[in-house]
Amino acid sequence: MEIITDFKEMQQRCLALRGEGQRISFVPTMGYLHEGHLSLLREGRRRGDVLVLSIFVNPTQFGQGEDFDSYPRDLTRDAQMARQAGVDLIFAPEASRMYPSGHATYVDVESLTEVLCGADRPGHFRGVTTVVCKLFNIVQPHIALFGRKDFQQLAVIRRMTADLNLPVEVAGMPIVRESDGMAMSSRNTYLSSSERRQALALIDAIRQASAAARGGERDAAAIIRAVRDRIEKEPDAVIDYVQIRHGDSLEEVGSLDEHSVLLLAVRIGTTRLIDNHYLLKEV
Predict the structure, then answer these.
(1) Are 32 and 53 in contact (CB under 8 A)?
(2) Mean pLDDT by 10 residues, the chain (283 residues)
(3) Domain 2-173 has CATH 3.40.50.620
(4) Which residues are catalytic?
């Protein structure tokens, strides 16, 4: 396994690999790897000849007052985990090289980015799409794997890839959860023991909503009310949003069908957690 920090070297290496007929699988991350990332790497190992991991805490997707400076970083730890997962190349650039002085070009996906997390975090998805587009151009992957926990991000990246005719297959992979059901996230490390217990309200509410839907409830508003009531029982929980939307268009729905996704963003103390679940479809 090699760690490459220079984008020109990385791009030349990947172009050479493609020229040799090697299929490149790519998993872009901000590092501080957990089992969710490792599941993507294992699938990427299965789907390609060369497995590339990027580790880059992208400053352009963090807003003012967000946790860019405190976001957990440990390249040595991540490299050990990546090696065990079968990674061939790690791309770990410096921000000053990804966004040099005079950088003035951004990728902006409209509509899909204006709701949900986009409404609460203006500019966030412009940062995500810009860095992912840059990474696609540098790594030249045949397939890129993303977790479905970041549901809106996956939808936005798919739209960008289609609209810009990028020759990359974007694969969405299942949410990986802790044994108690909590969705894995690097930000879970911010939670105190009390906050960690309260955070289970998200998966508890999801399970209750899923049971109601499978029991015949089709009124989205009724399910949203029940979810909010469950989460609001926790003293440190502040809801950013609880919404049910179409899994492809992200449009709000009034009556549930197989495309309906429950999407949550909740702050437990100072930690913002997201989760989602198709209410009537196994994915």
Answers:
(1) no
(2) 98 98 98 97 98 98 94 97 98 97 97 95 96 98 98 98 98 96 95 98 98 98 98 98 97 97 98 97 72
(3) yes
(4) 37
